[in-house]
UniProtKB/TrEMBL annotation:
The keyword Lipid biosynthesis does not apply. GO terms for molecular function: lyase activity; peptidase activity; single-stranded DNA binding. It comes from Mycena rosella. GO terms for biological process: protein-DNA covalent cross-linking repair; proteolysis. Keywords: Covalent protein-DNA linkage, DNA damage, DNA-binding, Hydrolase, Lyase, Protease. Residues 246-304 are annotated as: Disordered. Belongs to the SOS response-associated peptidase family. Residues 288-304 have a biased composition (Low complexity). This is DUF159-domain-containing protein. It holds the Pfam family SRAP.
Amino acid sequence: MCGRFALRLDPDEIQQLNGHHASVAEWERRNAFVPRYNIAPHSQAPVLRRIDPETDQLVLSTMKWGLVPHFMKFEDKTLNTTNARSENLVDGGGMWESIKGPKRCAVVCQGYYEWLTKGKDKLPHFVKPKDGRLMLMAGLYDSVVLQGETETLWTFTIVTTEANKEFSWLHHRQPVILSTPESLNAWLDTSSKNWTPDLVKLVAPTTCALDCYQVPKEVGKVGTESPTYIEPVANRKDGIQAMFAKQKQASPKKVAQKRALSPAADSDIEEIPAKKLKPTPKKKADTSKSQPSSSKITSFFNKP
């Protein structure tokens, strides 16, 4: 699955799509997007699509993550459309049947987050392209004017597939990544408005050059932001490397104990003068109680 991703770049840089040989004519609803390291479902994010199925002209469109089908009258918040399983697209039927042919897009990001389950613990990892390019994930989109509303609601979902052998250790699912110009063009070509056998191949598990590393657990909290979320946790100042660095430094308490045991070894330590203590006065023996008892004993033996 894919439940979180990052896109914290300048909008002008995003629109250039460097390295993808794609020319973007415009960006619809550009001001609705706020670059973030921690983009969660129900957030606004840019997707790439063809503005006209009959032409090759591409546009970026800011849409809400979590697809609301065009046939809905109200937004059903219990319906989980963050992801669309590729198997459901291939098998046909269901809510995706009328969408998968004419309304395909590519979700733009720097990389996505996935959580590795270890016992009761869940460790977040960041997955991104090795070459530093933007990642393009296969998606579907739709638009609808809900009952009682006047504005069109644009929404999208991310298509997921079975994880390939390289990433099956992390999770059993992963997003469909459009890593080549051919795969991107084929996915965005909606001129036929149909689902074709070539698209079935596109959503199958494939291998592409990706980096993957553990990142801070704080990314799991929706609404939080930090540039460290896309950096290896080992590189953080409070991370693994820092932990080992601290272990190499002796604890001040242990150093003090060693110095106390062998003062001769530390000639540089300033001697702390001892406090002068007043001598404790000696207590005089109290004989007042013992005298009466002794007189009684002698008087007993002197009796006639």
